[in-house]
Amino acid sequence: MSAGVPPEILRQVKLLELRTRGLVNSLFTGEYRSVFKGQGMEFSEVREYQPGDEVRSIDWNVTARMRKPYVKRYIEDGTVSPFRTWRFNSKIPKLPEGKVLRIELMAAATIRWSTDNWATAQDSQTVENAFGIHLADLPTASLRKGSTLTFTFFWPGTGDWENVDFSVISGEQDSQ
User: Fold this and answer.
1) Quick one: which of 21, 35, 143, 173 has the most CB atoms within 10 Å?
2) Which CATH class is domain 83-173?
3) What is the pLDDT of residue 34?
4) Dihedral sign, CA of 40, 43, 46, 52?
């Protein structure tokens, strides 16, 4: 594999520190189930292989001892995020019923929001997390299907209002 590459070059490559262009800030948190199983999951049992089982779940040690295929089984964690995230670069139009709307911003803000077309309004302050993302969780879990949450932003750093209303409609029951 390293044939033809001088040892000094290999040593320098091993010392390289790679950095990403940006932080991953929970883009898909809780919005899907992983296809990867086994690592970090609670072990359940080893059982005899059955047609349809994934080949990658075969326990080769037990298979060698028993002289027929066995698979490892794990308890799947059904934990799904209670949030759906809204960002300027990912404005969600609908919010599944029962989910909390999480607003993620790059600067501190006051979020003014209403569920009755501005007849009444409430303010929520963002809180900065360890990655410099400003978060606010709006209490939308009890919104009925078809309800509209309207919101805008006040930027205390500049003293300006966003002057645009954004909205999210409470939609169907979440499939996750």
Assistant:
1) 143
2) mainly beta
3) 55
4) negative
pLDDT of residue 22: 52
Q: Pick the more confident residue, 128 or 4.
A: 128
Q: Tell me which DSSP letter residue 117 carries.
A: T
Single-letter code of the amino acid located at 119: A
Extents of the domains making up the chain: 42-75, 83-173
Buried b (16+ CB within 10 A) or exposed e, 30-63: eeeeeeeeeeeeeeeeeeebeeeeeeebebeebb
* Angle in degrees, CA 129, 130, 134, rounded to 5: 25
Which uninterrupted H or E stretch holds 11?
helix 7-14
- Between strands 166-173 and 127-128, the pairing is unpaired
The more confident residue out of 138 and 14 is 138
List the structure tokens of 25.
């800030």
**For the segment 62-95, what is each residue's pLDDT rounded down to a tens digit?**
889 889 999 988 776 667 788 899 999 999 999 8
DSSP E strands: which ranges in 91-147? 94-97, 100-105, 110-114, 122-125, 127-128, 134-138
Q: DSSP labels for 37-104?
A: -STTSEEEEEEE--TTS-GGGB-HHHHHHHTS-EEEEEEPP----SEEEEBTTB--SEEEETPEEEEE
